Amino acid sequence: MTVATGLKDDGSVEGSNPFLFNTVWIVLLLTIVPEIILRAFLNVDTSWMLAAKIIGLGALVGLTFGWSAIRPLRSFLVILLLIYAVEAWLFGSIISTLPFYTHTFGTGEAAALFGERLLRMGAIAVVLVALLVMGFKRKDFFLTVGNIRAPIEPVKWLGIKQPEPWTRFGRNYAIIATVILLLFMLPALQPTLSNLSIQLIVFAAVCALLNAFAEEFLYRAALLPTLLPLFGKHKALLMTAIWFGMGHWFGIPNGLTGVLITAFGGWIFGKSIVETQGMGWAVFLHFLSDFVIYALLFLVNGV
Q1: How far apart are CA 253 and CA 264, in angstroms?
Q2: Is 271 helix (H, G, I), strand (E, B) or coil?
Q3: pTM recorded for the entire structure
Q4: Cis peptide, bond prior to residue 191, ω within 30 of zero
Q5: Mean pLDDT within 7-26
Q6: pLDDT in tens, 153-195
Q7: For residue 187, is the peptide bond before it cis, meaning its omega torsion is within 30 degrees of 0?
Q8: Most CB atoms closer than 10 Å: which of 14, 142, 147, 214?
């Protein structure tokens, strides 16, 4: 299976189906927006919504076997279903509550954070097998570093008027994003250096690397090959970026600010994956952001 068929110069797809396009948007929004409204604005218990998402997505996957109009979305729906059923439910809600797990990782917030990152490796394995069974090749889901010197496609509103190497843009983005994140989080957290240690730095780095790789694979590299052949680069990147951003409403940073920051970051990370044909820059840039966040949190709360 390939991910670049039918693409025009502007990144769109010849004969792109508006019905499929709208269906994907509806599905993505329904997995996030109702929970934000109920939980954040109406203070309603949403613990039941994970099961509803799994049942709904499972029904849609089943529907693709009988309704030809949405059959092209089967791969996308299967991966989305696995994200919620395997990562969020099986590993996040079932295995994480088993006695052996709570005994090992239930000794503090830092241990719990590390345990959650390890569980995501299991979800990655399941999604990886699913992609291979569906006929995707490793290059299709970008499981490689990629060409880190590949040219970035110009983006006028970002000030990129001419193609330039990802090494230059990636370096500049890393510096600017880190500074902005520090300016945003330092006043809010007010960390103290009294907790600083080699152990803290190493632990923050390991957790950041595990989280960055997991999120880049599960939320971008695994979804993009199911969307690119249908909608092209620009629409696929926008879809995954907005979905990723909305998923951080309850994250760090949270609220609308968190959504905007992570959606923009997700778009950059996805752009790097497609343009370099690998996850190298995405994982590195994501790692830097997560490392800053985890290190500051550990400086406040200890390890």
Answers
A1: 13
A2: helix
A3: 0.91
A4: no
A5: 73
A6: 999 888 889 999 999 999 999 999 999 889 888 998 888 888 8
A7: no
A8: 142
Return d(Cα 209, Cα 290) in angstroms, integer. Answer: 8
- Residue 238: CB atoms within 10 A of its CB come to 17
CB pairs under 8 A, 24+ apart, for 245-251? 246/29, 246/32, 246/33, 246/36, 247/32, 247/219, 249/32, 249/36, 249/40, 250/39, 250/40
R_g (Cα) of the chain, nearest Å: 20
DSSP string, 83-105: IIIIIIIIIIIIGGGSHHHHHHH
The whole-angstrom separation of Cα 258 and Cα 293 is: 13
Neighbours of 227 (CB within 10 A): 24
In the chain, how many H helices and how many E strands? 11, 2
Contact 121, 210 (CB under 8 A): yes
Is the Cβ–Cβ distance between 21 and 247 less than 8 Å? Answer: no
Among 28, 264, 3, 237, which Cα is nearest to 143's? 3
| Distance separating alpha carbons of residues 234 and 56, to the nearest angstrom | 27
Read off the tokens for 236: 């696929």
Enter the DSSP assignment of 150.
Answer: P
Q: 152 forms bridges with which residues in the sheet?
A: 164
